[in-house]
């Protein structure tokens, strides 16, 4: 096992205390404490950025977590910051998944087809994060267009797990998760269509949050499957998830599916995540029967059991819940996701933008298109376009796509009913710990079924969070998932904070 470098947080030292974050220890600090130190003048944003860029370069050699390190942009922003920049994320170095547009930075979505694409605008979530003072230091490696659970479908090579170079970081937001786990940044953005934030979070031992569909704008997120896609957040502490969520959420006129109030940034300076502001309340959590037995590894089941104990010890009532539709969810998810992908990816025609593979002039536009798509998309993307086009084709539409939509409604109805009885649903995040490199390449279906717990939240538009919950025998992290009711994101984060605090106090007691 390679150790995660540098070692991970703890709640040691805040700004103003001796031993508060400094450029050498910034990586062990939470985003909120780091920002407070920058605002208070104890820490210089430019020095933090230099330290983060150095860490990014060192970890890149080991993990391949980044597609582009945005040194110039980061230094420019840090200089502005030194000139008096404030905000809830003042001076916090962040990593952005490479399917989120950052103006002027190369944005590839992990694809050869967009290898040289530099968008002229930033995604709304990126803009809002930067307005809050964050400094983007790198674009994170990812499965091509978000298609995968291992990050091995990236045109830029796989991301290795910071805990073991023989294992994957998970996908598709593998670079974001590895960067946070390895201590390069305290906060990263990812995207989650069927689990792509939560799965790598679980594999790398960090927290990952997919909010309610529509609560974060998708403007500037390169589309995979639009009715399932949602921007997500990765961090080492739940408080940082909440901070970033508050900064980015709220309606965006450029995304018609977005909704919600914009939080005022004015309160920024006093804006600090505190573990204790969850109101005292009686929580009730349901453990999903269908995800606590067959098909789940011994280590994941043990982690689930420990998580139940932690919750009970924290005064949470834990009950069992049965959801019969769970066993159809993966099939419905892959039909809907691929159908939407086949339509979304039609825009890469070799003409509008991105790669263009020339054909003989005499062969015409269709040959250019065919050759560009055939040579620039990776095998998993081509497989999914074929699958999705088939599911949507005349004669098969009702049998496949139409039925998948019905199953989706069933899954959503069942989850919503259950979430009327309990505050959250608990399950393992993944069926086990991180896959070995190459393990899933020959048999993609065995990779697809690993999304069984995570894809539920996307099918129903629900918020869900993955939390570290111990390790397997080899020392690889395992995670558990808490899934909440639609639009109950703040409550879910409060419950996760409650769990996190209880877990910390139990492990400090031994
Ligand atoms: N593993 C799932 C897929 O490949 C989820 C990916 C994602 O959430 N972007 O579709």
Chain-wise SSE layout:
Elements: H1 31-39, H2 45-63, E1 66-69, H3 71-82, E2 93-97, H4 124-131, E3 135-140, E4 160-161, E5 164-168, H5 174-181, E6 187-192, H6 198-204, E7 207-210, E8 230-235, H7 238-248, E9 284-288, H8 298-313, E10 317-321, H9 326-344, H10 365-376, H11 379-392, H12 398-421, E11 424-428, H13 444-448, H14 455-460, E12 464-471, E13 477-484, H15 489-508
Parallel strand pairs: 2-3, 2-6, 9-10, 9-11
Antiparallel strand pairs: 1-3, 4-5, 6-8, 7-8, 7-12, 11-13, 12-13
Helix pairs in contact: 2-3, 5-6, 7-15, 8-15, 9-11, 9-12
Glutamine (GLN) binds at residues 146-149, 172, 192-196, 224, 337, 451.
Structure report:
It contains 15 helices and 13 strands. It has 510 residues and is an alpha/beta fold. The two termini are 23 Å apart. The N terminus is likely disordered. The structure holds glutamine. The site of glutamine has 13 residues, from loops.
Give, in spatial order, the strands making up the sheet with the most strands: 1-3-2-6-8-7-12-13-11-9-10
Name the beta content range: 5-15%
Mean pLDDT: 92
Order of helices and strands: HHEHEHEEEHEHEEHEHEHHHHEHHEEH
What are the distinct ligands in this entry?
Answer: glutamine
Low-confidence stretches: 1-18, 266-276
Distance between the termini: 23 Å
Throw out a few tags for this protein.
510 residues; alpha/beta; eleven-stranded mixed beta sheet; two-stranded antiparallel sheet; 15 helices; globular; disordered N terminus; binds glutamine
């Amino acid at each position: 096992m390679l150790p995660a470098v540098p070692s991970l947080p703890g709640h040691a030292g805040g700004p103003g205390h001796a031993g508060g974050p400094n450029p050498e220890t910034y990586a062990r600090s939470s985003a909120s404490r780091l920002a407070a130190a920058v605002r208070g003048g104890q820490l210089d944003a430019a020095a933090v950025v230099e330290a983060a860029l150095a860490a990014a370069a060192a970890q890149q050699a080991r993990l391949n977590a980044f597609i582009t390190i945005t040194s110039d942009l980061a230094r420019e922003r840090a200089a502005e910051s030194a000139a008096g920049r404030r905000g809830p994320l003042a001076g916090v170095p962040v990593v952005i998944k490479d399917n989120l547009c950052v103006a002027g930075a190369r944005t590839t979505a992990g694809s050869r087809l967009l290898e040289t694409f530099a968008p002229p605008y930033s995604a709304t979530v990126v803009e809002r994060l930067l307005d809050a003072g964050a400094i983007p230091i790198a674009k994170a490696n990812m499965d091509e267009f978000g298609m995968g659970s291992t990050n091995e479908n990236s045109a830029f090579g796989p991301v290795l797990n910071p805990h073991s170079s023989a294992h994957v970081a998970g996908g598709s937001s593998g670079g974001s998760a590895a960067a946070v786990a390895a201590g390069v940044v305290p906060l990263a953005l990812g995207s989650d269509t069927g689990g792509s934030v939560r799965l790598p979070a679980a594999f790398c031992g960090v927290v990952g949050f997919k909010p309610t569909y529509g609560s974060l704008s998708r403007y500037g997120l390169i589309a995979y499957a639009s009715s399932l896609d949602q921007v997500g957040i990765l961090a080492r502490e739940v408080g940082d998830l909440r901070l970033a969520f508050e900064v980015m959420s709220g309606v965006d006129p450029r995304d018609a599916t977005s909704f919600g109030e914009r939080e005022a940034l004015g309160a920024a300076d006093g804006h600090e995540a505190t573990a204790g502001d969850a109101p005292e309340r009686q929580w009730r959590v349901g453990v999903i029967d269908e995800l606590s037995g067959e098909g789940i590894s011994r280590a994941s089941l043990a982690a689930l059991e420990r998580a139940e104990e932690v919750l009970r010890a924290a005064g949470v009532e834990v009950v069992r819940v049965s959801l019969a539709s769970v066993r159809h969810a993966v099939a419905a998810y892959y039909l809907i996701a691929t159908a939407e992908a086949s339509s979304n990816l039609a825009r890469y025609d070799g003409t509008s933008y991105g790669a263009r593979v020339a054909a003989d002039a005499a062969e015409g536009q269709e040959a250019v298109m065919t050759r560009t798509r055939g040579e620039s998309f990776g095998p998993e993307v081509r497989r999914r376009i074929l699958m999705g086009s088939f599911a949507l084709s005349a004669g098969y539409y009702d049998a496949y796509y139409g039925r998948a939509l019905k199953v989706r409604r069933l899954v959503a109805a069942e989850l919503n009913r259950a979430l009327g009885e309990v505050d959250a649903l608990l399950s393992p995040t993944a069926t086990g710990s991180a896959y070995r490199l190459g393990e899933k390449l020959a048999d993609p279906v065995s990779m697809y079924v690993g999304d069984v717990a995570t894809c539920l939240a996307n099918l129903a538009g629900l918020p869900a969070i993955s939390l570290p919950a111990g390790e397997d025998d080899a020392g690889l992290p395992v995670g558990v998932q808490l899934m909440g009711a639609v639009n109950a994101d703040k409550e879910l984060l409060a419950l996760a904070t409650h769990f996190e605090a209880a877990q910390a106090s139990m492990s400090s007691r031994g």
